[in-house]
């Protein structure tokens, strides 16, 4: 009996040691990723790691507590420190933005962005979304021939509709309540990703220059196309800002706010990220794209605003069967 008890204790000790080692290795792995992710300018693979900064914070803090409880005080402190550093950088995109109240604000312009995921779109849900939200302006991407009938039905809500002359997953379509002053598609950056540039003046509201883009994915076969497309969008946006226009750059940019590529986009465009701007109805930042059923989501869809454009409300729309969730913004635009 005593021998059996000793064996059970030995087995329990081995299990505890194995769990402790596993937790320690996992914590170390997360900490290493958290450190390496800060060097995203060196290579596209490292830049991909930067997108998960909020998760390095979450998992790093949890694992550091677990490592501390197991008695590894030094490793716990290192893992926790790395997690907190990532948390400080990610915090503006974790906490809700500040709220504000504006006296006599101009009427809001509602803008809707949606990645339709080609043939995967739930067409009744798409129609219901637009009929419910009643946006002044809607931009959609990843179009398919199956969408045409639904768009025709939506002319009662958004009568002015335009598409590119090209056919591809990065194409865009503009729908609006009022006819744009102009709308054209710029292919200067290549990669079959047209940049929509349009100026729309909804009745009784200020004019808004809408720039929209669905970039290429940042993988080796793309040859840096995404970054060229973002640089071109930034240059176009800055030109319109310098002309004194009210500008919004919106789209599936295939980048998160934690990437150095995103920082460069903001710096070159002169725009601000609507996610962290003060809002009349502040909401916590949310992911717009999810990695399967992992529970891990990333904010890949963005709205960047120029001077004279403020956020009344920024939120997610209802699901339309896509791997992306629609983005809905109510914007206050100065004359």
Key structural traits:
7-stranded mixed beta sheet, alpha+beta, elongated, 36% helix, 2 domains, 6-stranded mixed beta sheet, Deoxyribonuclease I, Chain A, 335 residues
Overview of this structure, please?
This protein has 335 residues and is α+β, with helices and mostly antiparallel strands. The chain folds into two domains: 92 residues; 226 residues, Deoxyribonuclease I, Chain A (4-Layer Sandwich). Helix content is 36%, strand content 22%. The protein contains eight helices and 15 strands. The chain is elongated.
What is the strand and helix layout of this fold?
Layout: H1 2-36, H2 44-50, H3 53-69, H4 73-90, E1 108-115, H5 123-133, E2 137-141, H6 148-153, E3 160-163, E4 172-176, E5 182-186, E6 195-200, E7 208-214, H7 225-242, E8 247-252, H8 260-269, E9 272-273, E10 279-281, E11 289-290, E12 297-298, E13 301-305, E14 309-316, E15 327-333
Parallel strand pairs: 1-2, 7-8, 10-14
Antiparallel strand pairs: 1-15, 2-4, 3-4, 5-6, 6-7, 8-13, 9-13, 11-12, 14-15
Helix pairs in contact: 1-3, 1-4, 3-4, 7-8
Strand order of the largest sheet: 3-4-2-1-15-14-10
Count of the separate structural domains:
2
Q: Helix-strand pattern, N to C?
A: HHHHEHEHEEEEEHEHEEEEEEE
| Helix/strand/pairing category | alpha+beta
Q: Which stretches are poorly predicted, pLDDT < 50 over at least 5 residues?
A: none
Provide the CATH architecture of the largest domain: 4-Layer Sandwich
Rg (CA only): 23 Å
In the CATH hierarchy, the third-tier topology of the largest domain is known as Deoxyribonuclease I, Chain A
